[in-house]
Design a protein that fits this description.
Rossmann fold, de novo design (two linked rop proteins), 18 helices, Ubiquitin-like (UB roll), 4-stranded parallel β-sheet, alpha/beta, binds flavin mononucleotide, 405 residues, 11 strands, 3 domains, single chain, 5-stranded mixed β-sheet
Length: 405
C-alpha cells in the first residue's frame, strides 16, 4: 500500500498555521539559523546536491539556478504563488497550512544568493491568502526570525500568463503582464533589471527540511532523477478530491486508486490529465508510469504543477479539449503571433470538430498548427497549449474521428 510522505506539508493540521510560535516550537527557523552559520556557496551546493527540482512546472534544479546569480548590489527572491492553472490548489494549501515554512525557505534562498528583499506574487483570486501571508510576515518580523531579510506580498489581477516568471516580474514592476524574451534569464537580469531568483511555493517549502536533514536524505526519497515528494491535487471523477503529498516514484495508478479511492460512482476510468490545462492526457495503458518529471515527459505528458484531473468513461474527450482550447485562446496575452493566432485558430478548429462539421483535413491542419506553436511561441503558454490536442490525438483519436463528417 503506497503511503504519503510529508516534507512540505509536515506541519499541516499539526500546528496553528497562524501562530509563528507554534512553527518555532515544531522546529521552525532552525534551518535558517543553521544556514546563517554557513558560507552562502555551501548552502547553494547543498541545495544543488539535494537536486530539488522546481515544483512550478519546469523542473529545474533550484541550487543550480541560484548558482547562476552574479554579484550585484541588489538582488531579489520571488516566490511564485500565482497558481492560475485550473485544478491546481497545492500552493494555496501549502501556504494556508504552513505559511512560515515558505517564508523560511525564501530567507534561506536570500542568504544563499545574498538578497535582502523577497516578494511573494499571489494570485488575485486568493485575497484571503494575501491576508494570511501578511499576518505571517508581521509575526515573523516581530519575532525577529527573518533577520534583515524583508518580504512583501504583491497581488496579481487574474491573468494566467502572469505565472510565467518574466510576465510575473513585469507585473510586479507595474507593467502589463507579458513575458520577456529570454535570455537574459531572471537570475541574471530580473526584477528592476537586478538578479532575481523566482521559485515556486512548493520549491521554497522543501528547503527547511533539506537544510535540517541534509541533501543526501532528500535525494534518497522518491525517484532518483526527481527526488523528494510532490504535492498533488486530485480533481474530477475521483472519490477523494484531496491534496496529497507522495514520493515522486509513486505511480499514477497508485495516485488514482490508492489515494484517490478510485473512480466515482463505480464508473470506469477513461483518462487522466496531469499538470494542469496544458498537461497531456494519459490512457489506462500508461497508468503504471511514476509521476516524476522525467517519467512523465517520457510518455509525452507532464508533471507540471501536479494537478490530477481524472475523467470517467462518460466524458467526451473532444468536448473537454475544446473547452481547454477556449481557455488558452482567452488567456493568451497576445504579445507573440504564434500564440495569439495559434490559440485562436486551435479553438476555432476544435469547435468545428466538436460540432461535427470538420473533415480529416482539419485534423491535419491543427497538428501542423500545434507543431508551429510548440516551436515558435515566445513563452510556455503558447508552447504548451497544443499539448492536450496532441496527446488526445495520440491516445483517443477514435473520439475525434467519430465526430468527422
Ligand atoms: C503560462 C505559464 C504559467 C505559469 N504559472 C506558474 C505558476 O502559477 N506558479 C509557478 O510556480 N510557476 C508557474 N510557471 C512557471 C514559471 O515560469 C517558473 O518556471 C517557476 O515559477 C520557477 O519556479 P520553480 O523552478 O521553483 O518551479 C508558469 C509558466 C508559464 C509558461
Amino acid at each position: 500500500m503506497a503511503e504519503e510522505v510529508r516534507i512540505v506539508l509536515r506541519n499541516a493540521d499539526k500546528i496553528d498555521p497562524n501562530n509563528v510560535d507554534d512553527y518555532i516550537n515544531a522546529g521552525g527557523y532552525q534551518a535558517l539559523e543553521k544556514v546563517r552559520g554557513m558560507d552562502p556557496k555551501a548552502v547553494i551546493e547543498e541545495v544543488k546536491k539535494a537536486n530539488v527540482r522546481g515544483r512550478g512546472g519546469a523542473g529545474f534544479n533550484a541550487g543550480l539556478k541560484w548558482s547562476f546569480v552574479p554579484p550585484a548590489d541588489v538582488k531579489y527572491v520571488v516566490c511564485n504563488l500565482d497558481e492560475g492553472e485550473p485544478g491546481t490548489y497545492k500552493d494555496r494549501t501549502i501556504v494556508q497550512k504552513d505559511p512560515q515554512t515558505v517564508l523560511e525557505g525564501m530567507a534561506i534562498c536570500g542568504h544563499a544568493i545574498g538578497s535582502k528583499q523577497g516578494y511573494i506574487y499571489c494570485r488575485g483570486e486568493y485575497p484571503y491568502v494575501v491576508e494570511q501571508l501578511n499576518q505571517a510576515i508581521d509575526q515573523a518580523k516581530a519575532k525577529g526570525v527573518l533577520g534583515d531579510f524583508d518580504i512583501e506580498v504583491r497581488m496579481g489581477a487574474g491573468a494566467y500568463v502572469c505565472g510565467e516568471e518574466t510576465a510575473l516580474i513585469e507585473s510586479i514592476e507595474g507593467h502589463r503582464g507579458e513575458p520577456r524574451f529570454k535570455p537574459p534569464f531572471p537570475g541574471v537580469e530580473g526584477l528592476w533589471a537586478k538578479p532575481t531568483v523566482v521559485n515556486n511555493v512548493e520549491t521554497f517549502a522543501n528547503l527547511p527540511e533539506i537544510i535540517n536533514k541534509g541533501a543526501d536524505w532528500f535525494a534518497s526519497i522518491g525517484a532518483p532523477n526527481y527526488p523528494g515528494t510532490k504535492v498533488l491535487t486530485l480533481t474530477g471523477d475521483v472519490v477523494n478530491r484531496v491534496p496529497i503529498e507522495v514520493p515522486t516514484n509513486t505511480t499514477i495508478r497508485e495516485v488514482i486508486y490508492e489515494f484517490g479511492g478510485g473512480i466515482r460512482n463505480g464508473r470506469k476510468f477513461k483518462a487522466v490529465q496531469i499538470g494542469g490545462t496544458s498537461g497531456g492526457f494519459i490512457p489506462e495503458s500508461l497508468l503504471d508510469t511514476p509521476i516524476d518529471f522525467d517519467s512523465m515527459s517520457s510518455i509525452g505528458a507532464t508533471l507540471g504543477t501536479g494537478a490530477v484531473f481524472i475523467m470517467d468513461d462518460t466524458r467526451d474527450i473532444v468536448d473537454i479539449v475544446t473547452r481547454i482550447s477556449k481557455f488558452f485562446e482567452h488567456e493568451s496575452c497576445g504579445k507573440c503571433n504564434p500564440c495569439r493566432e495559434g490559440t485562436f485558430r486551435c479553438y476555432e478548429i476544435m469547435k468545428k470538430i466538436n460540432r461535427g462539421a470538420a473533415s480529416a483535413k482539419d485534423i491535419d491542419n491543427i497538428v501542423l498548427l500545434a507543431r508551429v506553436m510548440q516551436k515558435a511561441a515566445l513563452c510556455g503558454l503558447g508552447q504548451a497549449a497544443p499539448g492536450p490536442i496532441m496527446t488526445t490525438l495520440q491516445h483517443f483519436r477514435h473520439e475525434y474521428e467519430r465526430k468527422l463528417v
